[in-house]
Design a protein that fits this description.
This protein is an alpha/beta fold. Helix content is 48%, strand content 14%. It contains nine helices and nine strands.
Length: 263
């Protein structure tokens, strides 16, 4: 983070109870940013809210919600549009996915992945963006994944939603150029969180240097959105891989995808 006050005074973070979301919350709280934390695990969310309030003296609101449920998603949208408690930074971090052959996976679970990874960010972004544009300042940080750049057998739905979120973010960044609103896609590679265990899948064994820390990813993302960067890929190996993948022939991409996500 730069040696100056963080530009956003309030932030709402989805998927905030653990992993990258919790790391983002801790970094923002340390900068004096008031927070609204959203996640399904209510008890864990409230524990984090209390921890951050005690440690940094900032206002931290816990808002338990399952963003795959339309009614609960509308509650979060309503919070984003509250004129008395404006949000200056929206972080769409919540995500899920199941591994396996698509034809064998329960369709309700795949639909829930689309709702959480794609539909929820679209609706939450649409809820907050008009007010940010009217104010002439604000930020939206969408946490995607490098899996969206690589054909991913056994991750057909989740990898596709990551690709969608990255492109959605970059399109919005261009659309809002000059408005004072920064839209950034945070595109990490393998990150040490409980995401893989919670969603019952993981990549092939990888060298330790390829695994990023959640705090490392959070720091890079917050710096990027504050600076107005359209895309942030943390870690040199993944920056290089992202560039190389842009020039990689499709057959080789498919082979890499089969290797990385072999089961």
């Amino acid at each position: 983070m730069a040696d100056r006050p963080y530009p956003y005074r309030t932030a709402l973070i989805t998927g905030a109870s653990s992993g990258i979301g919790a790391a983002l919350a801790r970094r923002l709280a340390a900068q004096g940013v008031s927070l609204v934390l959203v996640a399904r695990r209510a008890a864990r969310l409230r524990e984090l809210a209390e921890e951050l309030h005690r440690a940094h003296g900032v206002e931290v609101e816990a808002l338990p919600a399952d963003l795959t449920d339309p009614e609960q998603l509308r509650r979060v949208e309503a919070r984003l549009t509250d004129p008395d408690k404006p949000i200056e930074l929206l972080v769409n971090n919540a995500g899920s996915g199941a591994a396996g052959v698509f034809a064998h996976l329960p369709v309700d679970g795949e639909e829930a992945t689309v709702r959480l990874n794609s539909q929820a960010p679209v609706r939450l972004t649409r809820a907050v963006l008009p007010r940010l544009r009217m104010a002439g300042r604000g930020g939206i940080l969408n946490v995607s994944s490098m899996s969206g750049q690589l054909p991913s057998p056994s991750l057909a739905t989740s990898a596709a939603t990551e690709a969608f979120l990255t492109h959605f973010s970059q399109n919005l960044a261009i659309e809002n150029r000059g408005s004072g609103v920064h839209v950034t896609a945070l595109v990490p590679g393998l990150t040490k969180t409980d995401y893989f265990a919670a969603n019952d899948f993981g990549p092939a064994p990888m060298p330790k240097f390829l695994w990023l820390g959640a705090d490392q990813v959070a720091a890079a993302g917050l710096k990027a959105v504050a600076a107005g960067s359209r895309r942030c890929v943390p870690g040199f190996p993944y920056k290089l891989a992202s560039v190389l993948l842009s020039f990689t022939p499709p057959p080789l991409k498919r082979a890499l995808g089969r290797y990385v996500w072999r089961r």
